[in-house]
Amino acid sequence: MAVYPKGYRRELIAKRILEAQGYQVVRSSGSHGPWDLVAYKDGEIRFIQIKSYRPGPASREKMLRGPRGPLDVSREIWVYRKRAGFEAYNHEGRQWIIERL
């Protein structure tokens, strides 16, 4: 399968998870920017990059470092785990598992 349809499906899975948690989610379709999803709820903003592979620590740190933006936001990488959900990392060094719906 081509990379785009696979990534698109995984972005939609993540989008549904966030919406089920009460977030409003915007997908940056067609964008080649650093973030695939932007989620908002009660003043909290999350920039999320969806990956199909686990980036190494140095690569992950580089992705989470840039660009900050004008607001205090959570910058996150969600790594897809086949049929299980996502392994998530944020810019503060926190790591957690997100179960699939």
Provide the succession of SSEs.
HEEEHEEE
- Global Rg: 13 Å
Oligomer: single chain
Percent strand equals 35-45%
The N- and C-terminal alpha carbons lie at a distance of: 23 Å
- Which percent range fits the helix content? 25-40%
Number of DSSP strands?
Answer: 6
SSE map:
Elements: H1 3-20, E1 24-27, E2 37-41, E3 44-51, H2 57-65, E4 74-81, E5 85-90, E6 95-99
Parallel strand pairs: 3-4
Antiparallel strand pairs: 1-2, 2-3, 4-5, 5-6
Offer a few descriptive terms:
single chain, 101 residues, alpha+beta, six-stranded mixed sheet, globular
Describe this protein's structure.
The chain is globular and about 35 Å long. A hairpin with a 2-residue loop joins strand 2 and strand 3. The chain has a domain of 45 residues. A 6-stranded mixed sheet has the order 1-2-3-4-5-6, sandwiched between helices. The protein is 27% helix and 36% strand. The protein contains 2 helices and 6 strands. The protein is of the alpha+beta class and 101 residues long. The relative contact order is 0.17.
